[in-house]
Amino acid sequence: MKVKFVNVREALTPSGLPDVDWAFNPYVGCAHACVYCYGRCYTRDKEVAGRWGEVVAVKSNVIGLLKREVRRKRGVVGVGTVTDPYQPLEAAHGLTREGLRVLIGGGLEVSLQTKSDLVLRDLDLLLEAPERVDVGVTVTTLDEGLAGLLEPNAPSPKARVRALERLSGSGVRTWVFLGPIVPGYNDDLASIRAVVEMAASTGSALYYDKLRVKRFMLAPAHPLREAAERARSYRWGELFRRIEDLCRSMGVKCALGLDYGRSREVREGSARLDSFL
Predict the structure, then answer these.
(1) Is residue 222 very low, low, confident or very high in pLDDT (cuts 50, 70, 90)?
(2) What secondary structure, in 3-state letters, does the chain show?
(3) Tens digits of per-residue pLDDT, 93-137?
(4) What is the reported pTM?
């Protein structure tokens, strides 16, 4: 993997997503190399976008900028909206940890999303202001083999579940993102039920979403080309009703939404389940 270092003009950018005011992404690109990742479509760096998973840029000056910007920002900051803030580079560079220190210390609300159990390293920071922090973990499937196909360099589902259990057990508000649901891969009810049960056992809310077809998925050699074609005419409404029934039966608060396109009420656990189904 190629790592490069870049300077940026701002640390916090308007998110454009429901219930998230600002986005903080300390890296450009992601080494997890998930085959479905939409992040490449929103990355201006052509090398990173064109070699997704092979090239990642470290924002060298992002913490200095963040320290200045938090003085005049308020609201919810989504950490990791187009990159995983706990991808392997974070272990060496620590930009996410330093960013959390600044954001939490500055009084902002933090909503973090990851596929990595490295988030547990920062449990001490997350617990400094648990009323202003929530953590979401993406779990597309609990099947280790399937996860390896969809998310080749990401931590295993077992590691993610252990992280959720530890976070929730420590008092951190947690949620699970079941998405994207890919036709022919993780759309069977047995697979989905297992994820909903895991959300229930960890006291987590659940957000789910379909595969949203992007142009890169339709390339002849892309592994999801057939799934992307099927997704265009898939009976999503029927599947979503079944997911909602599962959530209702297990007492799991759930909602349909993109990564980070989620309801603050569900995230905070302050609304009735029925209002989202």
Answers:
(1) very high
(2) CEEEEECCCCCEEEEEECCEEEEECCEECCCCCCCCCHHHHHCCCHHHHHCCCCEEEEECCHHHHHHHHCCCCCCEEEECCCCCCCCCHHHHHCHHHHHHHHHHHCCCEEEEEECCHHHHHHHHHHCCCHHHEEEEEECCCCCHHHHHHHCCCCCCHHHHHHHHHHHHHHCCEEEEEEEEECCCCCCCHHHHHHHHHHHHHCCCEEEEEECCCCHHHHCCCCCCHHHHHHHCCCCHHHHHHHHHHHHHHHCCCEEECCCCCCCHHHHHCCCCHHHHC
(3) 999 999 999 999 999 999 999 999 999 999 999 999 999 999 999
(4) 0.92
